[in-house]
Design goal:
By secondary structure, the chain is mainly α. It is about 75% helix and about 5% strand. Helix 12 runs antiparallel to helix 13. The chain is globular.
Length: about 400
């Protein structure tokens, strides 16, 4: 793709923000999606139960998701570069400090609050920025901007397991914390917003888009007043709840079922690899087919995959397979929801609009892993948590069956 002008006499290839999005989202993947490998070591070191350990992850997800709304607003106002730079420094510092944990409170503060705060600042701005450079492939650009979440967890699962087994869990926080800070800060320098009205050379908007009487983008206030926004919000919460419950406990489930640490760790990695690949391929499908049909296919499959997760836990290859299916459907959400926001409300205020919608992820991240750990402690089995997760996906199916796009806002 050719070079595109940002400011007079300043040029930049439009693939560079995509690269920055991949690196920054990989940083967030390292933070979030391999937490379950810490369950056994933390339990062995301190005697904390599953719910207590899962609470650190739940707090991190809550803070992470809550920060995406202000991050989107700040990115729309001040540009993505400054926000990601600051967030990268905070993220790396918090994760590094978690390596000194001796109490639950310190772990909750450093990993949960500080690292989660920084991660929320890093995550959202590239998602809002990349589609503006790719008006011809918006869903694909959104998918590329979040593909690193799965990539980071694919990397983190086996690396963290190997470090834990060789020199201890604290070194994971120290080494990876430094790496995450560097990665996020470097990615910030690739992020810039194109000028208003910019489009790639050789591409022209549709006749409708260029017609002054055609539909215009929604403002943030107009979008959040629509019924569709809050239906999407609830749907996002329910779908993310089940996926995050699995991510927070999949390695612990495998270990309880009799698998080795490495076999259980590879369940994390297969979920992560599928989670990563689907973000790009789902973007390709959305650009061709739209979001509605893909939503239904993914969600229905997810209901059955969640029900199979518990009985297949003791068979390593079967656990890897069902984990990959769950990862595929879960990862697709992070292309489907921003693409739906773009389709419903336009690109002008997408950072703020999707930033608020993404707080549903934070609420689901707090509820899913913690409730999963609580139900495991109460019942002694992961069967009930996974059934609950399957039911929440069913709620998302019902919502997506009922929702219709908002009425187009006409230019005056």
């Amino acid at each position: 793709m050719g070079e595109t002008e940002i400011l007079p006499q300043v040029k930049m290839p439009r693939w560079l923000p995509l690269l920055g999005g991949i690196v920054s989202s990989t940083t967030c993947g390292l933070l979030l999606y391999a937490w379950s490998v810490f369950i056994k070591p933390l339990n062995a070191s301190f005697g904390w139960n599953r719910a207590e350990i899962a609470l650190a992850y739940a707090i991190c997800l809550l803070i992470f998701g809550s920060m995406t709304y202000p991050a989107g607003r700040l990115s729309d106002r001040y540009g993505p570069r400054k926000i990601v730079f600051i967030g990268g420094f905070i993220l790396g510092l918090g994760f590094f400090m978690a390596g000194y944990a001796e109490t639950k409170g310190w772990l909750y503060l450093t990993y949960g609050v500080i690292a989660g705060f920084g991660g929320g600042l890093v995550y959202l701005p590239p998602i809002a920025t990349a589609p503006k450079w790719w008006p011809d492939r918006r869903a694909l650009a959104a998918g590329c901007a979040v593909v690193g979440l799965g990539l980071g967890s694919f990397i983190m699962g086996p690396i963290a397991t190997a470090i834990i087994e060789s020199i201890g869990w604290r070194f994971v926080f120290w080494y990876v914390g430094i790496a995450m800070g560097i990665m996020a800060i470097l990615s910030s320098f690739t992020l810039a917003t194109p000028p208003r009205g910019w489009h790639p050379k050789g591409w022209t908007a549709s006749a409708l888009a260029s017609d002054p009487k055609a539909s215009a983008d929604y403002t943030y206030k107009e979008a959040v007043r629509s019924r569709q926004f809050w239906l999407l919000y609830l749907s996002f919460f329910c779908a993310a709840f089940s996926g995050l419950m699995v991510i927070g406990h999949i390695a612990g489930h495998g270990r309880d079922a009799g698998l080795t640490a490495m076999q259980a760790g590879w369940a994390v990695s297969t979920l992560a690899a599928s989670n990563s690949i689907t973000r790009i391929l789902t973007g390709l499908l959305v650009d061709r087919l739209g979001t509605r049909a893909i939503f239904f296919v993914y969600f229905v499959i997810q209901v059955f995959a969640m029900l199979l997760l518990y009985p297949l836990g003791s068979i390593y290859w079967a656990l890897w397979l069902v984990s990959a299916v769950i990862g595929w459907n879960y990862g697709g959400l992070f292309t489907l929801y921003p693409s739906t926001c773009l389709s419903y409300y336009g690109a002008t205020a997408v950072g703020s609009i999707y930033g608020l919608m993404f707080t549903a992820f934070g609420l689901a991240g707090f509820a899913g892993p913690y409730i999963g750990g609580f139900l495991k402690d109460v019942t002694g089995t992961y069967s009930i948590p996974f059934i609950v997760g399957s039911c929440t996906v069913g709620v998302s199916i019902a919502i997506m069956a009922l929702i219709t796009p908002p009425r187009k806002k006409m230019r005056i």
